[in-house]
Amino acid sequence: MWLVAVGAGVVETVVQVVHAYDDGVSMSSLAGQVAVRAVIYGALFVVIDRYFRRGVRWSRYLLAGLLGTVGIASLVTEPIGWLIGKGDWSSIDWSTTLLAIVVIRAIHLTAVLTALVLTTHPETSQWFNKKKAGLPNRRPALR
Question: For 22-61, what is each residue's pLDDT tens digit?
Fold first, then answer.
């Protein structure tokens, strides 16, 4: 699920960049934002692929801590800010871009929350403990 969350973040970034470019945002501003996000998403992919999937304990805490707090906050801050600032549903421009962003953001948030729950599940803990001990095991099967 962490990979789904990162993938949704990448897709949302692409949609947001295309939308911003169409709105006339400068290329240098967009390039800077894309560069920062590319580094973050790239680093997360490496942590998930190289460490988390292999049962390295610190990767579990890093993903749960960073994506479970900062990630969720970054996903809900903008919508909550809009609700507090404007909160006028009639002023929303229900464009295809907005609908795409809303759907992608919902998938992204759901993936992060699901990954967070699965990362802290007791069977996941057993799987990481067996990996640490060097015991052969299968991936946790959630019931």
Answer: 888 899 989 999 999 999 999 999 999 898 888 888 888 8
Structure token pair of residue 115: 């990954």
Whether residue 52 contacts residue 59, with contact meaning beta carbons closer than 8 Å, is answered with yes
Rg (the chain; Cα; Å):
18
Q: Determine contact, residues 8/24, Cβ cutoff 8 Å.
A: no
| Contact predicate 110/8, CB 8 Å | no
**Distance (Å, rounded) from C-alpha 80 to C-alpha 128?**
36
Domain borders along the chain are 2-133
